[in-house]
Amino acid sequence: MTGNNETNNETINESISLAVAERVNKFRKEHKLSLDELSKRSEISKGMLVQIEKGRANPSIGILCKLANALGVSVADIVAISDGPNVKINKPNDIPTLWQGEHGGTARLLAGTKGSVMVELWRWHMLPNETFASDPHTKGTIELIHVEKGCLTIIIDNEVINLNENCSLTATMDVRHAYENRSNAPVNFTMTVYERASH
């Protein structure tokens, strides 16, 4: 998942910010990357990386995706929900909210795999007039979306698709795309993302 803004007005909570700080620093050192090198590889400013590693920034979903791709890990690795044995149960308090819309909508990362092949399961709740815009994912990234309630408008490379309740969509998302609730009622949808790190 990639967002346009470097920080969330929609914020990650403090415990997640600290986990992100620790993990990014750990993975960067494991890859023997300087902040300058990681900045170039991830296309994130060095200043932002410094703030992230100090736990002083609330990086957007887009920034987390760029970091994961640059470091060859998954977003779940960075937000610390993928550690443990082969079977990992995420209890309600373990599931991070990584996006908050301006009217109170949320996107929660329910589960994710470890490593450079990233498979993520998301649960979205979007209120009327909320929008989430995304930069292109890495080449070949696939998203599977199922609308549980309401009507979700999806814009994929300027094509507008209205996905109604109980309908599903499979799309390659290596182009600019966005999710919008243009209706007067809440929209709930689940999303699975399959992406391979490019590094």
Automatic annotation (TrEMBL):
Keywords: DNA-binding, Transcription, Transcription regulation. PROSITE patterns: HTH_CROC1. It comes from the Bacteria. Gene3D superfamilies: Jelly Rolls, lambda repressor-like DNA-binding domains. PANTHER family: HTH-TYPE TRANSCRIPTIONAL REGULATOR, HTH-TYPE TRANSCRIPTIONAL REGULATOR SUTR. GO terms for molecular function: DNA binding; DNA-binding transcription factor activity. This is XRE family transcriptional regulator. InterPro entries: Cro/C1-type_HTH, Cupin_2, Lambda_DNA-bd_dom_sf, RmlC-like_jellyroll, RmlC_Cupin_sf, TransReg_Diox_bact_type. Transmembrane segments: none annotated. One of its GO terms (cellular component) is cytosol. Residues 24-78 form the HTH cro/C1-type domain. SMART domains: HTH_XRE.
